[in-house]
Amino acid sequence: MSRMSLLLTAFLLTLLPSVLFIALVHEDWSKATVAISFLALVPVAIAAVPFLFHPGSKGRVCAAYGATLLLFGCVTRMGFAVFLFYLPATALMAIAAVRMAIKTPAHMANQLDNPNSAAPNTFPPARS
After folding, report:
1. Cα torsion 104, 97, 92, 2: sign
2. What is the spatial distance between Cα 39 and Cα 78, in angstroms, rounded to a whole number?
3. CA–CA dist 128, 123 (Å, integer)
4. Which of 26, 33, 57, 75 would you call most buried, defined as having the most Cβ atoms within 10 angstroms of its Cβ?
5. At residue 37, does pLDDT exceed 90?
6. pLDDT value at position 105?
7. Residues 39, 33: contact at Cβ < 8 Å?
8. Is the Cα dihedral 24, 26, 30, 32 positive or negative?
9. Which of 61, 82, 77 is nearest to 16 (CA)?
10. How do residues 66-119 score in pLDDT, each as one tens digit?
């Protein structure tokens, strides 16, 4: 999977439990129900933050790492009862963040693909 599809899948995996949870809770429209609904949308907002940055930028990588930590914090802090369903999204967000961080720069990819490129020689000169 590509980096972007992993990030999108992680976002959708946070959206699905939130929508299902809100649909199950909204039998009556009390103030507590509305508060719980907004609480269920917090992980969705956290997972959406990396999409605010330009693809391939360091900001998106940092946002993905931050979203991973915040989602994991939500899972552990809010308990494993409801927020357990956000654990797969947290794992996918972590995988996407790591894959975005270790990408090969474009100038290095061209040199590695083409052995006849005009890449500078980085080895020291041979002694005679």
Report:
1. negative
2. 10
3. 15
4. 75
5. no
6. 56
7. no
8. positive
9. 82
10. 999 999 998 888 776 777 888 889 999 999 999 888 865 555 444 444 555 555
* Dihedral Cα 31, 35, 40, 44, nearest 10 deg: 120
* Residue linked to tokens 């269920």: 40
**Half-sphere exposure at residue 13, Cβ-oriented, CA atoms within 13 angstroms:** 18
Instruction: Give the DSSP letter string of 51-106.
Output: GGS-TTSHHHHHHHHHHHHHHHHHHHHS-TTTGGGGHHHHHHHHHHHHHHHTPPPH
What is the number of residues in the chain?
128
**What are the Cα distances from residue 8, in Å, to 2, 61, 90?**
10, 14, 12
pLDDT at 45: 93
Q: Cβ(103)–Cβ(24) under 8 Å?
A: no
d(CA 97, CA 66): 9
Q: Is there a contact between 94 and 7 (Cβ–Cβ < 8 Å)?
A: no
| Percentage of the chain lying above the pLDDT 70 cut | 72
Q: What does the pLDDT average to over 120-126?
A: 60
| Total-model pTM | 0.71
